[in-house]
Amino acid sequence: MTALTLISESQAKEGNRFYYIGPQPECGDCRLKGVCFNLESGALYEIEALRDQTHECAFNEDRVRVVEIKKIARISTVPKKSAIEGSVITFQEPECKRLDCKNYLLCHPYTLENGAKCSVIGIEGNTECPIGLDLVHIRMI
To answer: What average pLDDT does the segment 20-38 reach?
Structure first.
């Protein structure tokens, strides 16, 4: 599903991806904040198309451009019993804190908080877990 938002001119390129980190304090009085605040905090987006409209922005040093974006699925790991395609799950990081694990960033994604609701849109397969947890890779939005 395509949505509109504003992004700095320097970042406004088709195919660029960004994580939306949430509203900034400088944006509180902006008349265009509804266009920027319509995104989900922590979600990954890709710019699909640029529009001609630009605006002044108190937060960015340059102007911002109206862009068409789409939400991008992320890959993470979850317990196998939670991985049901089409379901909505409550994300919970595993108890493991092994920083040397090759799956650490999939198990502990920095833009996804414990308790976040996610839709499982695909199951990628089993995850090799060094401490023996029964995990699978999933695609989710």
So the answer is: 88
